Amino acid sequence: MGDMYSKEIEVKTGGRAVVHDLTRDAEAFLAEADASDGLLHVFVPHATAGLAILETGAGSDDDLLAALDELLPRDNRWRHQHGSKGHGRDHVLPALVPPYASVPVLGGSPALGTWQSICLVDTNIDNPVRHVRFSYLAG
C-alpha cells in the first residue's frame, strides 16, 4: 500500500437524534487528498455515535432512527445513567451501528452504490457537536 492522508471535520448535529449524510464531505476530502484508487476509512471518536451506509431522503434514515428507538428505548432501564433521560442507550448504539466504515475509492470517488450514502448516526441529544475523521489510503 502507499501513502495515507487524514483529516478530522466537525459536524453540528444539534439536540435531537439525527442521521447526517457525510457523502459530500467524503467527496470533498478525497478531492483534497488528490485521491485515485485506494480505500476511504471513516471513523467517529465518540462513545455514543456510529456510521452507517444507507439510503437517505426516502425515509430510510427516519426508519433507522425509529428502529433504534424500538431497540434502545430512551427510558431509565439503562445502568449507565448520566445526562438526559435514557442516555445510557446512546452508549450501547456503537455496538449496533459501529463507529467506523470503509469504502473503496475508484478514480478519486467513493465506490458507493446508486442509493448509498455515508452517514453519521447520532442519537446523543446531550452532545451537539461531533468529530469525524476521514483517512485515505492510496492503493
Automatic annotation (TrEMBL):
InterPro entries in the cross-refs: UPF0047_YjbQ-like, YjbQ-like_sf
Pfam families, alphabetized: YjbQ
Residue intervals passing through the bilayer: none
Domain of life: Bacteria
Gene3D superfamilies, alphabetized: YjbQ-like
Entry similarity comment: Belongs to the UPF0047 family.
Protein's recorded name: Secondary thiamine-phosphate synthase enzyme
